[in-house]
Structure prediction request, 306 residues.
Amino acid sequence: MAHPVQRRQKVRKVSRRKVWITRRNGVFEIQGLDKWYAYWRDPYHMALTIPWTGFAAMVSIGYVLINAIFGLLYLLDPQGLKDARPGSFEDAFFFSVHTLASIGYGVISPRSTYANILVTIEAIISLLLIAVVTGLAFARFSKPNARIVFSRHAVVAPHNGIPTLIFRAANQRRNYIIEAHARVYLSRDEVTQEGSPMRRVYDLKLIRDVNPAFTLSWNLMHPIDIDSPFYGLTPEQWFDSEPQIIINLTGIDQTVSDSIMTRHTYTKQDLLWDHVLEDLIHVMPNGDRYVDYSTFDGVKPLKADR
Prediction:
């Protein structure tokens, strides 16, 4: 017998808006997130992520709108501003600019109680806006950005007698990235034993996934052994599975002592089988060594290397 008092369960409505996953040049792109996620609900994130031109435009438009609103409010009292032309929106607007920026030329001044109250309110808003805009600008300037580049292609070539997936990264700033850590994943289409299609992600074990001081270049290598998802994979099977090699690299920038991170993706066209990366480090006759970054993206067939 059912209990006489039953709690009503809340029914959560699911949005009918769709998020499309499309494939462009072998890379899966998620479309519709701009409609699913409204930027106006998170203005702080928007202010930090939009380009500098958009940030400057947003601040400028907001500044003009605020002064225009206060200019209209000052016009509500025709005698509120001393030495201003009666009914002049231009004088009221620029008086608001002087007040909001704490300039105070003294050419036009408030003389009514209403105008002085508006000046007080605008002064308080000015303090808050200056603090917010200054904080956002500082956050944008101080936000660390990783200047790390990856080779154009990844290759599969023998390393110590074992077929190995190899690609390289380089630090463009030439400073030290302390405790650089790389995580590599393989994402591809598969079909379960029940016949259901799925997108599966594998962890790719690296020979060395931590670099204590990443400053020049770094070859990242995944041995294709019996535990590797690449084991027994043919180039034809590779192309048919719509694969992606995803790299997440993190570390601490020694210059700013802050964490940095970057992400890179290789598609099926970016992996070259039976190729090797050209050497970057060259030895001089006197024993000195130098790094030639002109061959950073260089590859050559494996047979030509033998």
About this structure: Residues 50-142 form a domain with the Helix Hairpins fold (CATH 1.10.287.70).
